[in-house]
Amino acid sequence: MMTDLKRIFLVEDDPKDVELTLEALAEYHLANEVVVARDGEEALDYLFNSGKFDAFVSGNPAAILLDLKLPKVSGLEVLSRIRADEKLKMIPVIVLTSSRQETDLEECYKLGVNAYVVKPVDFHEFINAVKGLGMFWGLINEPPPGSLGKAARR
Q1: Strands of 7-11's sheet, edge to edge?
Q2: How far is CA 2 from the centre of its chain?
Q3: b/e map of 46-65 (b: 16 or more CB within 10 Å)?
Q4: pTM for the predicted model, two decimal places
Q5: Cβ(31)–Cβ(8) under 8 Å?
Q6: Are 82 and 48 in contact (CB under 8 A)?
Q7: 40-52: per-residue pLDDT in tens?
Q8: CA nearest to 147, candidates 58, 30, 29, 53
Q9: Mean of the pLDDT values across residues 106-116?
Q10: Do 32 and 5 touch, CB atoms closer than 8 A?
Q11: For the chain, which domains are there?
């Protein structure tokens, strides 16, 4: 198992889901850093180094956990912008959403999502789902060469 923990970018507007996700990732030491954006606009600012992140430089995250139902800019739009950008398109994006709509699922895969996970309602199921995602995308999966910045490699 790799000991080089990576940064995970969590895009989630529900404070309870943010708390549960952070708890699950921390409990199992699955990332050395988790950056949280509370809406789609903030997510795009972070990824494209604009707005309050215009001076922020530390390379791409190892993986993005993305909710679909976000304020300001939808998760589908965020995913579309990620996949359209040469520097971001290789980042694994895992949709973590409560949406079971077939149209959302289909659109996400058309846009190139790596995984689509429907949030369980049960606390323990949610923790286990996030733990599994963190284990795979944060520890086991190797990101594309050159996709991580020096600050993320430690």
Answers
A1: 33-37, 7-11, 63-66, 93-97, 115-118
A2: 20
A3: bbeeeeebeeeeebbbbbbb
A4: 0.80
A5: yes
A6: no
A7: 999 999 999 898 8
A8: 58
A9: 94
A10: yes
A11: 7-142 (3.40.50.2300)
